[in-house]
Fold this protein.
Amino acid sequence: MSQTVLDLIGNTPLVEAQNLVKNPNVKLLFKLEGQNPGGSVKDRPAYNMIRKALERGEISKETKLIEATSGNTGIALAMVARLLDLDIELVMPENSTVERVKTMRAYGAKVILTGADRGIEGSRDYAEEQVEKGRYFMLNQFGNDDNWKAHYHSTGPEIWRDTDQKVTHFVSSMGTTGTIMGTSTFLKEKNKNIQIVGVQPKDGASIPGIRKWPQEYLPAIFDRNKVDEIMEVSEAEARKMTIRLAEEEGIFAGMSSGGATAAAVRLCNELKSGIVVSIICDRGDRYLSSDLFDQ
């Protein structure tokens, strides 16, 4: 039976860490979200948010979509929108890597760059201003329940299935928080003892894809009660672990994955036993123009 690109979203592989974990009683598994057709975990919510909005009649092929993004969600939305014949404008900080901007434009999206000094918050403000003027419809990944529900219906069940229901800990970087919210909701329904660990940057650390949001920009979908522990990582830790992932595990990923892995390895070293699953958010090739892999 023939498939479309959209049918390839999800069912990403779990692979076991070979070298990073020295604790013989703990198994660390990486969920390789870069295997999605758009190259990141954001394919899941992007497709779900657009699909559900279409089903509810909130948008049509005449609708102009707009969304603020730090990169991966924008790429995923650009891909899905093009396949569903929708017009989309993506807003991101001007210091985003050129690979991200070019990939969105390659899919046919319009890309607007906002001031680097205001970061993703500035991009969010710009998009909301355009919506208020009545020109656009915003999916709003930060406040859209279809974001986290994508993971409730796919990421969580896949982890439960592929660990033979034995997962004990789930580790995820937190940006929009959709991945950790949806996966936590599903896994806790299956076994309330599964520990959910969110990863944030330390104060002053700049790690693309991981945020510690100011209160006024905290994603509306975030529920602190669904996260058992929050671990903080420094920029140096995230960068070092991103390199180690490539060199020691053969996993080429971005810095948010390095940050999550740094926390996951730290956790594995503390546990007496367990099966830890950590999200590898995307692929490293969209960061080659940055200094991430300079050594």
Q: What stands out?
A: The two ends are 46 Å apart (CA to CA).
